[in-house]
User: Fold this.
Amino acid sequence: MTGRELRFPDQFLWGTATAAHQVEGNNTNNDWWAWEQGAGHIRNGDRSGLACDWWQRAEEDFDRAQAMGQNTHRLSVEWSRLEPRPGAWDPKAVERYRQMLSGLRRRGLEPVVTLFHFTAPLWLADLGGWENPRTVEYFRRFTDRVVAEMGDLVQRWTPVNEPATYAFLAYMNGVFPPGKRSASSALTVLRHLLLGHGAAYHAIHGRQPDAQVGSVSNIFVAQPLPRHGLADRLLARGVDFLHNIAPLEAVTTGRFKPPLGWSKAPELVNSADFLGVNYYTRFRLGVNWRRPADSFRLQLTPGAEVSDLDYGEVYPQGLYETLMRVARYGKPIIITENGLPDHDDDQRPRFLLTHLAQVWRAIRDGAPVRGYYHWSLLDNFEWAQGYAMRFGLIEVDFATQQRRIRASGRLFSEICRANAITEDMVQRYAPAALEDIFGV
Assistant:
């Protein structure tokens, strides 16, 4: 074995991430299941259906994660299973989640639990979902009960996944339920989601003073199109602030700034023990003077390498840039998601190595990064993209539920076990990237 390596800190968290609706199957009592039944909502007319059958067989995939050398797993609990009607809890669902969390712990996988990952019970959706200010209290009540039932098995919590992404996809772009196209609704929902995070933070710490409760933001690099002008730069800066920075400002300083308002929420001050970063890509923006509404369309860099179905540009340097920006808030950082859709796995090994090299570089330069969760452990139902996008380190045949570890999964296993990227790994999995990785 040749000698160069990028070694990560001791006790570094190596894991993968999943979300309940995307893997469990037959979540029939939430707004996403209802949304899937409508024509044109999901690519190819897909429906989540059985998904990865985790409600019955999650432990089989926990075995696979353990065998890959992972020491943690991020998952979510499904609100509509636990509280199928307002105030009415299902003890069987509680017990099943306890089995899953215990199963992770027995395998040496520390669970990190998300409480809202894009799905709402039908009864909550009927009340207006996150557009209704009462939902903040419903979520606080839900959080308190989950911690009472499962807190002995969980020390790390991420109450709300990607509040800005959810608010804009569901309430402005209309591609998530309820399919609205209203900027004012999106801003209202974003405020309520952030307030929900704050309410959950205090509910968790009320029962578990020593718990670690983090925010999770999807942060993309927002830059103007090449050959940009001043208007393009201002547009990119505004989108960057609203999507990437405003949620971080809220959970650290408690301040809402325009266009979220000009106010302070005391319950949000210092309401994150760590900052979760979901990083995937870079987007470009440019003002469209003929069709101003199109100015907010996220575009790809012309000529750049992109992942399947033009999901996003492969831009490893952006992860370093993002981590260094987030480090300014003075909180521990966990990369709670990072990945790409790659059906034939021809990009993912190099993606893993080059992005993790940028994580190592950020740590070297002072960013307090404590862990990395790849999205995802296995192929799953990818929301509006259905089953067309394959993010898994493990391939799933959804007709038979058979699993097969991809080359990228074998590589990730080697990285987890070594707690390092070695020159030998790069030579075997992505030799063309050798100098990119060890030249950082």
